[in-house]
Amino acid sequence: MTAQARRRETRQATYQDVLDAPPHRVAEVIAGTLHTHPRPSARHARASSGIGARIATPFDFGDDGPGGWWIIFEPELHLGSEGKDIIVPDLAGWRRETMPEYPDAVYFTIAPDWVCEVLSPSTRQLDLGHKRAIYAREGVGHLWFVDPGAQTLEAFELRDGQWMLIDTLFGDAPVSLSPFDAITFPLNALWSEVTTGATRGGKP
Predict the structure, then answer these.
(1) What is the rounded CA–CA span in Å between residue 158 and residue 147?
(2) Which residues have C-beta within 8 Å of that of residue 78, sequence separation ≥ 6?
(3) Positions of the chain with pLDDT under 70
(4) pTM attached to this predicted model
(5) Rounded distance, CA 147 to CA 127, Å?
(6) In this structure, what are the phi and psi dihedrals at residue 106, rounded to the nearest 5 degrees?
(7) Residue 114 DSSP SS3
(8) Which of 12, 103, 139, 155 is most buried, with most CB under 10 Å away?
(9) Half-sphere exposure for 159 (CA within 13 Å, toward CB)
(10) How many whole angstroms separate alpha carbon 165 and alpha carbon 139?
(11) Comparing C-alpha atoms, which of 133, 138, 29 is closest to residue 88?
(12) What are 78-124's pLDDT values in tens digits?
């Protein structure tokens, strides 16, 4: 191996690598390694936008709900030492107490209070592995994994630095989970046109 090849092999990826990534790829840097993957599929996007809409309306905008949150689609997070871990969750939420003012910046440096990852074949291993560990390290209190293929939702809560499974939902189960248990909506609304039984505000 030449000296030039060794330098390429050991070089740590930086934010510049994210900026240089093709626009049709989502780029992340984890532990110095650049990861890129395709933009979400239609099924993935449907689940992500569905859960975001259900939560943002009452919790971010305060319509028929308690408010008090910022709910953001695909925020770019710069976390860890000097912000070297650059990750893009499908959805993230910050309590207004955690982030009192919405930043005028291209990325976020404050760890969210809640993260939701929508699993897909291209991102599953990274979401369940390195990114999950980073969220625990940064003290993210709540982590949801939504799987459009299996049509399930797994909710975890951080306790003493470890993820504890709170619930696994499937089928048309009602979703009413911390930290958003002030509302209820049917899980199958995330991947179908079935909306019967959904509520916009408190539990039925």
Answers:
(1) 20
(2) 15, 84, 85, 86, 107, 108, 109
(3) 1-10, 193-204
(4) 0.87
(5) 11
(6) -85, -10
(7) strand
(8) 155
(9) 6
(10) 16
(11) 29
(12) 999 888 999 999 999 999 999 999 999 999 999 999 999 999 998 99
